[in-house]
Design brief:
mainly alpha, Helix Hairpins, 4 strands, binds zinc ion
């Protein structure tokens, strides 16, 4: 404690100046947070689009496979019809050489059976052809959708590159500014600031008194405590959330 105090004395900084520095430090850190949040969402959007395009391409690939299978199935049904036709011709020829009616009737039944087979094949071909048409249409609309999404993706990627480029400079400038302010305050305050900020949900270690309440947790602050804060004679933390409290006037003073 004594060591920290002597160091603070050496820096010859009043409590008011320290409070002001803490407030400024918080402002800069909040700006850095904002940049990181802004940039933080774009890569996610780009990632989502990349996933979507990939999913659509997989679906299109599956559709191509289904189209091929249907074409194969139609071809195989056509071959079955050809075979059935050949059998019918063969049975009809055999009917000219039968020895009795029983053999003739037996061949007639075979012919009848092959004719039914042909009908069935034709029915299947009709079904497969309709399905094929659907799949082809679906494939076409998938292709259009993929093109659209790819265009979106390209635009987002460009946006991301631009924002990264723009914000990088600003972020570096802010980090430099933050370091500069941080170095003006005593080490124990630096540590306290970092610890409070790390634990605070919104990254706020220093907050102003707003409408008689803590600007971090919104709990009411008693009038006497508010006067202590406004007097800027000592560093006061919120008894509920532990954030450093400053009066709302402190922020507007150098603007
Ligand atoms: Zn609080």
């Amino acid at each position: 404690m004594a060591k920290a105090d002597s160091k603070a004395n050496a820096q010859e900084m009043t409590v008011e100046e320290r409070l002001k520095a803490l407030y400024d430090l918080q402002s800069v850190e909040s700006s850095i947070d904002k940049i990181r949040t802004l940039r933080g969402e774009l890569p996610l959007e780009v990632q989502d689009l990349e996933d979507e395009v990939e999913g659509l391409e997989t679906r299109l690939g599956n559709l191509d496979g289904e189209v091929k299978n249907l074409n194969d199935a139609i071809l195989s049904k056509k071959n079955e019809i050809k075979e059935a036709d050949l059998l019918i011709k063969k049975y009809e020829a055999q009917q000219g050489n039968v020895r009795n009616n029983r053999e003739f009737d037996s061949l007639s039944k075979e012919i009848e059976f092959q004719k039914l087979e042909i009908e069935l094949c034709e029915k299947r071909i009709k079904e497969f052809t309709a399905e094929l048409k659907n799949k082809k249409e679906l494939g076409e609309s998938s292709k259009t959708l993929i093109e659209d999404r790819k265009a979106d993706l390209e635009a987002k990627q460009k946006e991301l590159e631009e924002i990264v480029g723009e914000t990088q400079v600003e972020e570096e400038r802010l980090i430099e500014k933050s370091d500069k302010i941080l170095n003006t305050i005593p080490e124990r305050l630096q540590v306290a600031f970092k610890r409070i900020r790390k634990n605070a949900r919104n990254g706020l270690a220093v907050v102003t008194v707003e409408r008689d309440a803590c600007g971090g947790c919104f709990n009411k602050i008693p009038p006497q405590r508010q006067m202590d804060i406004a007097s800027r004679k000592k560093i006061i933390v919120c008894e509920y959330c532990g954030r450093i409290l400053v009066d709302s006037a402190i922020g507007g003073e150098d603007e």
